[in-house]
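User: My collaborator sent over this chain with a note saying "see what the structure looks like." That's all I know about it. Can you take a look?
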Amino acid sequence: MNFGEQLKEIRTTKGLTQIELSEKSGVALRTVQRMERNEGKPSLYSMNAIGEVLGTNLTLLYAPDLETETRNIMESTDQQLWAIARKRAKFKRSFGAYSVVIPFLWIIWYITMPGEIRFNVLPWPIWPMLGWGLGLGIQYVNAYVIQVGSLEQREYDKLKKGE
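Assistant: Without extra context I'll predict from the sequence alone. Here is the result:
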């Protein structure tokens, strides 16, 4: 039984039509149809999306050729780069907000605090500045220092070597 026949069998066992599978997975109906007819080479994204809906790992059923395997590796790499880019963008947005809000809090403190006691008490803007700053520090490390998937990759390499 080839990949397309196995996919069709799993789909029908789950009681889904091709249209329902397409809608639930977000994969185009034409792609689902082509996969069931063994036409073309399905992308890793399509197989993963359909596999999630069906509750199975379709990549185990499909034995790709070298070209498809290379494309799947590239898609996986792109997803990792996208995850890193998302974390860095989130950090930059947070830092931008911090850079605007914290000085504003200090200005409010300076204006509202009576001059004679202004420097005799601990200023309240120090607490949001320190708390938010700590959060930004953690976000920075997560976005720029720790690599996405590095722990997983090390564990995979260990398993592959038989350790």
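A starting point for your reply to your collaborator: Residues 93 and 99 are 10 Å apart (CA to CA).
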